[in-house]
Amino acid sequence: MDLDLRKLRYFAALAEHLHFGRAAESLYIAQPVLSRQIRALEQELGCTLLERTTRSVQLTPSGAQLYEEARGLFTTIDSAVRRVREVDRGVERLVVGFASGLRVSTALRAFAESRPEVEVELFQLKWWERELPLRDGRADVGYLRRPFDGTGLRTVTVATEPKVACLPVAHRLAGSPAADRPLLEADLVGEPAIGAQVRRTASIEEKFELVASGHGIAVVPRGVAQVYSRPDLIYRQVMDAEPVEICVAVPENRRERRVREFAQLAAAVLREAWGEPERRDITRV
């Protein structure tokens, strides 16, 4: 079955608004047209996407799954269309994604010297998305921390980074005599931890605000703590915690010269910036 993208976009608008009138208005079509298209989509898929009453519209589990899939699909399609149009205009553009607290500027400067004709754009990777922008085309190259799903990606580890515990200043582990000895993972057992389960879309700033207000502690890479340093928080290295790997990553299906050259250059430059020995042949990126 060939899925009609127009019907899928109509459905996505309805799933966003959960109101036929407002969705039709956003699409600049008549409401009866939208209703017919949604019914046709349900018939083609063979499942009910919406629960309709006289007062409300709600997504069924199948509808919620389709909406999630559709958003990723549209992002991928839009990114592909952008790249095609750039080729048609003779534009070479590179989108470099980077995680919070990681500095990619040394690699950008080196690349600008060797390929000044390439337009470089930066894209900050959200902590809850990790490698997803590499998969859907929003970023061409990623400079990010593990853990992430490396399936379909070519990666090179350029450095490791210790983990630190983010603590309120009044926490029992923040000051003397506790601070006079190394902090170990065993010291954190039983402490309420603020992690990805708090809110999927919570920012790092929100996470640290929750820590400062006494809702729990957070264990983060040292680079993140350095960027978000604040007087009401104490950061202590967890001495026996497994360090975080920092990687350069590109999708396996991206073979453009600019993507390949930047990834190779970035792996070498960033490894040198971290003072790390070479671990593998960077030409395999």
TrEMBL record:
Keywords of the record: Activator, DNA-binding, Transcription, Transcription regulation
Domain HTH lysR-type: start-end pairs: 3-60
The keyword Metal-binding belongs to this UniProt entry's keyword annotation: no
Pfam families, A to Z: HTH_1, LysR_substrate
InterPro entries: LysR_HTH_N, LysR_subst-bd, WH-like_DNA-bd_sf, WH_DNA-bd_sf
Annotated family: Belongs to the LysR transcriptional regulatory family.
UniProt name for this protein: LysR family transcriptional regulator
Source organism: Nocardia fusca
